């Protein structure tokens, strides 16, 4: 199979070719290896080489399709450390439930993608692996924390990479790199490492809506003992792709009053998408949930940092020694110290703020079907702009700068648990990808996927490829 043919296919397309016998699994793994060899030196999205001999299960929907797992995800043999020197060289002993369900689709886990330390950051820059760069402009970040996943998918190494989202970590990298990133509803997929506020959700990063829907079908269902349970879908999510969404009421916003306002490129992308939605027959009006944003982000910071010292303490007990001064990012150490100051009363106060925000979002959905916002405040930031070991800021000052200047639009939905997706739209004036965020009702992935697929058909983003793209490196011959 030619590398340009491989890099243009999504997982669903590759699976069709495999079932027809037009390509063999070994060819696809070889293509993934060739793609990585061609583009990864420029983007640094992978932890280690591609395993062309990775096993796969026959007789399943995606048998033989190569995928990547996020560093720190519970995939047997994958990196345990999630970008941290503290756990460098350690591997995951066995699949967790999410990875087991991905593996059951028949895929070949051919490697792992980079992530920032413990998935804490909105950029993928670490002392362990260095900076993961954007295939559209290597002076820019691919986002975080699933930045290696989004860069690898955008650059054509694989069509699908596992990802996680605890504050925007699927959606923000998808925005930065021009791919599709869905954060499912809380409780839709297994996330066994969650604690207290249950902010994080597992899913995949893809180039197409149909791949995202298919892997959501394969992985849906919470893990045993999960605190949040939602009803299973009434029909497969894959069947929602191409289904008529009907006439929907969609509110849109480009600012979070009193906290952050989208920059011109991202605000204009929302305006263009709103106009496109109107042209598709939907009712569109400017509207937002009545959230007190400054108070919300104060609470979010407490919730975000309270578990950092607990998590590092657990790792130190596992290792039988304290973390050395060079084994943690500078900001991670500051988060640890800040988290130690968070009291039980602080967390109870945060819980009250989160309840109020959730009520506000539910009240919004009494009048509207979906909500449209920017996926981020600006396009992809420059490498080093938010480097967690490249600043003297306090944990609070750093966090607020990242939120106000970059990632403010995503965390609300981790708190409320609503599904949300970053959808690529035509690029910024500087040629960088832009994503808009569509938010659905609680447990409303079906309606959300229908609308995302309608937008994909109206403006097919997968035809746009970055300058650093595996397909453009093909010069004849087979992979």
From TrEMBL:
<dbReference type="InterPro" id="IPR000120">
    <property type="entry name" value="Amidase"/>
</dbReference>
<protein>
    <submittedName>
        <fullName>6-aminohexanoate-cyclic-dimer hydrolase</fullName>
        <ecNumber>3.5.2.12</ecNumber>
    </submittedName>
</protein>
<dbReference type="InterPro" id="IPR023631">
    <property type="entry name" value="Amidase_dom"/>
</dbReference>
<comment type="similarity">
    <text>Belongs to the amidase family.</text>
</comment>
<feature type="domain" description="Amidase">
    <location>
        <begin position="51"/>
        <end position="449"/>
    </location>
</feature>
<keyword id="KW-0378">Hydrolase</keyword>
<dbReference type="Pfam" id="PF01425">
    <property type="entry name" value="Amidase"/>
</dbReference>
<dbReference type="InterPro" id="IPR036928">
    <property type="entry name" value="AS_sf"/>
</dbReference>
<dbReference type="GO" id="GO:0019874">
    <property type="term" value="F:6-aminohexanoate-cyclic-dimer hydrolase activity"/>
</dbReference>
């Amino acid at each position: 199979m030619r590398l340009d043919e491989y890099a243009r296919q999504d997982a669903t397309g590759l699976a069709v070719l495999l079932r027809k016998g037009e390509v063999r699994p070994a060819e696809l793994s070889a293509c993934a290896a060739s793609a990585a060899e061609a583009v990864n030196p420029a983007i640094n999205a992978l932890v280690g080489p591609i395993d062309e001999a990775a096993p796969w299960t026959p007789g399943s929907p995606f048998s033989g399709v190569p995928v990547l797992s996020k560093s720190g995800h519970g995939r047997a043999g994958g990196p345990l450390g999630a970008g941290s020197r503290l756990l460098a060289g350690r591997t995951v002993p066995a699949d967790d439930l999410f990875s087991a369900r991905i593996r059951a689709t028949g895929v070949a886990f051919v490697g792992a993608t980079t992530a920032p330390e413990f998935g804490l950051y909105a950029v993928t820059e670490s002392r362990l692996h260095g900076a993961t760069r954007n295939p559209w402009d290597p002076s820019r970040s691919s986002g975080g924390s699933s930045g290696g996943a989004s860069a690898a998918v955008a650059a054509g190494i694989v069509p699908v990479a596992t990802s996680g989202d605890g504050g925007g970590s699927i959606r923000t990298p998808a925005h930065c790199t021009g791919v599709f990133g869905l954060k499912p509803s809380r409780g839709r997929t297994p996330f066994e490492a969650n604690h207290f506020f249950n902010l994080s959700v597992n899913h995949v990063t893809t180039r197409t809506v149909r791949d995202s829907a298919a892997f959501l079908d394969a992985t849906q269902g919470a893990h045993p003992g999960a605190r949040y349970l939602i009803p299973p879908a009434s029909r497969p999510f894959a069947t929602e792709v191409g289904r008529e969404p009907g006439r929907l009421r969609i509110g849109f916003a480009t600012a979070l009053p009193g906290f952050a306002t989208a920059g011109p490129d991202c605000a204009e992308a929302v305006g263009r998408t709103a106009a496109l939605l109107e042209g598709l027959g939907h009712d569109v009006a400017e509207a937002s949930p009545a959230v007190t944003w400054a108070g919300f982000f104060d609470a979010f910071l407490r919730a975000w940092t309270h578990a950092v010292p607990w998590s590092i303490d657990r790792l130190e007990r596992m290792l039988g020694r304290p973390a050395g001064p060079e084994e943690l990012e500078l900001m991670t150490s500051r988060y640890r110290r800040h988290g130690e100051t968070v009291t039980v009363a602080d967390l109870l106060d945060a819980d009250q703020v989160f309840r109020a925000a959730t009520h506000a979002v539910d009240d919004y959905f009494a009048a509207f079907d979906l909500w449209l916002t920017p996926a981020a405040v600006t396009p992809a930031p420059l490498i080093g702009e938010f480097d967690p070991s490249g600043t003297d800021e306090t944990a609070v000052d750093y966090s607020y700068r990242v939120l106000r200047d970059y990632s403010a639009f995503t965390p609300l939905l981790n708190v409320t648990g609503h599904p949300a997706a970053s959808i690529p739209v035509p690029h910024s004036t500087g040629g960088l990808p832009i994503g808009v965020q569509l938010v659905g009702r609680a447990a409303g992935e079906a309606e959300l996927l229908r609308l995302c697929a309608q937008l994909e058909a109206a403006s097919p983003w997968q035809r746009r490829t970055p300058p650093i793209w595996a397909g453009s490196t093909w010069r004849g011959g087979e992979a």
